[in-house]
Amino acid sequence: MRLGTKTTLLTLTLMGGMVLLLVTVSLVAFRQFSLSTAEDQVRAAAEVVRVSLTESMINGVIDRRQSFLDRLAEVPGLTAAQVRRAPAVVTQFGDGLAEAESVDEIDRQVMDTGEAVFRMDGSEISPVFRGTIPFIATSTGSPNCLQCHQVARGTVLGVITIKISLTVLQRKALLTVLTMTGIVALFAVAFTLLFRRQLSPVVATAQGVQEVVARAKEGDFMGRIEYQGADEVGQIAEDLNRLMEHLHHSLGNITSDVARLMEYELSGKRNLITTTTEMVEALVDVAQFKQAVEEDQSTQEVYARIGRVVKNHFSVVHFTIYEVSTTKNHMRAVVVDGESNAPCRWCHPDILSQADACRAQRTGHEIGSLSHTHICGQFLGEEGRSREHICIPVLHSGAVGSIVQLVMDRSDGPKVRLLVPFIKVYLRESAPVIEAKRLMDTLRESALRDALTGLHNRRFLEEFVETLIATAKRKENHISVLMMDLDHFKSVNDTYGHDVGDIVLKALARVLESQVRTSDLVVRFGGEEFMVILQENAGYNGPRMGEKIRAAVERMVIPIPGGTLQKTISIGVANFPVDSPDFKEVIKFADAALYKAKADGRNRVTTFSRGLDALVPVQERKLNS
Questions:
Q1: What is the pLDDT of residues 233-257, one digit of tens each?
Q2: Strand partners, 570
Q3: Cβ contact 586:505 at 8 Å
Q4: Complete DSSP assignment for 487-517
Q5: Could you confirm whether domain 456-624 is CATH 3.30.70.270?
Q6: pTM over 0.90
Q7: What is the β-pairing status of strands 563-565 and 456-457?
């Protein structure tokens, strides 16, 4: 129910109650006044009758008393006047007039008690007030009752019954009450109209406040109250309008600033509260996310965390995070549908070895099939389902460093499209962290690799050896150590120069990598000395691999300026833990075997045996140098 209606109904109810109360009080008051007046009139008439009867007795005309009573009954308002003798008077003077012979119960009650009785007779329409009053003998006055009546003082001599019609009085009372009621009702109506008029600005302002607040709850702060009064209500309206204006500009500016920060495009009609709240909450989540990724140890942990955000926070089930190597034109899937280092699922595998085939990587632009169907031919989708994709490139120092591919059903496309700006915030915040960690990985990798050959260097071996030994012990594997040295390499540098020497070392590195498995390690141990570490889970393949490498090097033809060059290699082999449970000692044994191979004529493979122990101190001095 509206406030104006409630106010009007309340006012009318109060006015109606007031009128009803006034009518009730007036009727009760008029009734009491009428009864009191009638009682006084009855007593006055009774006293007149008593005096008249006394005078009639003195003057000897008591026998004419009925004429007096009849004349008295003709007085306007009086309907009856009857006198009845009490038993004491009847005993002394005999029965009275015939009209006075009928004695009713009230007459007897008054004669017995000596108390007057008043009551209402007649109908509601024609009410009659009856009063029956006793005549009691007294000894006062002149003449007094005891002079004529032979009775004791206080004896009831008789009763007189007077009946007065209250019809006229009732009619006048009702007319008065109706007049008063009409006047009060008119006043109530006038008061209600005046009160409603005075209250209408308050009601209008309250309705305006309700509408403005309702619009504000929906994020629309453009609502205004039109009341312009100079009173308190007008001040409330003005203050509320000023508050709405302030909220509109303040929240609008906050929303615009946050949207610019998030690179989020605001729609024309939006809920300021919801939009601002969502974006601020997103920024808080992003700040916490950034702090977490900064403390992650590796880029893979960062990628995994991004995957959890995409899957758990944004409810995107199917996605792929690619890491791009711009120098090698390669890509690798680091997270697929929440699984780290899983096989590529949503794109053709060609993009892994040829990153330029990826449209997002090539252009550096966001690519989506929602608005451009089949925009990317590398997307595989899923047979039997209408899949769409959005590929978001993430720039690292101006180049595409990673790509996040979102895959969804076409029906979910619009929803995912709305999530993209928020996902981009996470990607932008994580990009510097990933770039820094990748740079650190690159620096660390360069520190652990030989700059000339690209092979692992001796420092890498020192850092990796503990992990290597622990893995071998856990799996109960053997490790073969092949220590090798190019024969007469110094003569190459002396004869052809160091540039040709570098060419020979690079060629040897390529041959070594081509002969071993990806699980094996090739290390440039120093100068022209190389080491191959074979991780073997069964048998002892060190000598056989050494012979394979020796033969490959012997067949190697190295193009050099002005012709070609061929070289041979000497190899020493030792085994962990067969030859020694100490891996460092195994390296010394392999080096001793290499020394023996060179001593026996070079271009050969020598396996360590206990007879070579004497060479270890010599080789140890060599290694230490």
A1: 777 877 888 888 887 778 777 777 7
A2: 485
A3: no
A4: TTHHHHHHHH-HHHHHHHHHHHHHHHHHHS-
A5: yes
A6: no
A7: unpaired
